[in-house]
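for the writeup, i need someone to sanity check this before i put it in the appendix. the sequnce is what the collaborator sent (i think, or maybe the updated version? ugh). structure was predicted straight from it, no edits. if anything looks off just tell me and ill rerun, i have time this weekend
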Amino acid sequence: MLFRSIGRSGVERYSDLTLRGKAGTSHVEVNAHGREIRELQRSAGRPGKEVAITIDAQLQTFATNRMGEESAGAAVLDIYSGDILALVSTPSFDPLKFAFGLSKDEWDGLVRHPRKPLLNKAVTGQYPPGSTFKMVVALAALEAGIINAGHRVFCPGFTTLGDRKFHCWKKGGHGELTLAEGIEQSCDCYFYDLGRRVGIDRIAEMGNRFGLGQIHELGLGTERPGLMPTRDWKLKKVGEAWQAGENLVAAIGQGYVLATPLQLALMTAMVANGGVRITPRLVLPQGETAPRLEPVAFDPETDPRSLKLSQANLSAVRDGMFRVVNSARGTGYGARIKDKGFEFAGKSGTAQVRGISVAERDQGLPAIDKIPWEHRDHALFVGFAPYHAPRYACAVVVEHGGGGSSVSGPMVRDILLQAQKTESARRKVRQVAEVTPAGRG
């Protein structure tokens, strides 16, 4: 019996017919005993075609090793072409074992594993984006003309709406902050103020422009859309009207808002490239064997894919992101890149997976190692590099990792540094090849 291996998931399934080709046929004459006498006709088969993907194997391996056995997803994009250079989900598994058949114990081990190795978290995992979403909220407020970069908010540690208090992560408050300082220190009260002023519909519209809440058709078949809620969405889906307090919750990337690591990397890429819409790409068109190595410059003011955002507003948001990792008061300062010329900008995020009661808050939250793993916050971080000439965007989400700055931030730092140093090394090799005379070593 002939067994044929076919693509069962991912790119192999999407491109199965292209990879497989077409079998040939042979018509033969046989006698009454089934013995072949002669071949009457032959039709040659057609070999399958190669399918190239954008993944940088070296960067993919590095990112996978760096994330280790954490339950996590990550994506790295070229901010100009949209090429996906790394798409990582950990912990992983050996796909070769499926070709030969898994034992029941092996299958049960994968299915019941608490960190879900069979789930491609980079495109299927949907998470509250937490404070990584604050750039979208800031741009929604800036573009609507509701605030400018000098808008100041006083943070006493909480915001009151009606009879309810919405707490900042910093118990004593941040004092008075500008927009850049609000991003730098990830002040929740600053963004409660913006959420109250701008409203969920304008926030969702800006999120959609940055690729959130939608599927990007990578050819994997498992991508999930995330969610950018609106007033109409809640009324239709939940059957209830949108509440004023939900604007505040959404403004810090909680509540109904959901995003995948790929979407967060795409959002970051478009903030970095000047607000030009790019499409994430994993499978290269037939005939292309490798992604472009050099960045393709474009003008955000004239490019037809432009999101038509104010460059001054984008610059203000990028300035805040730079401060996050390069200012001593920034939430991601511990994850900064110290190598000159390789500096990056980023944004931390910590997303709650369970509500915190007033009594729990008053008593003081326990240390993270005292909290069951499944009750710990998700740790998120997004970034782009190099800051002064952006090329790469990266997002990492570690499920139940705790703090975005302390857990995901160093991962983003190391992945972006590796991407830059790999590019630098390759550029030097190309330069040597260009100046080396033919026939000389």
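Residues 404-435 form the longest helix (32 residues). The chain has a mean pLDDT of 88.
thx in advance!!
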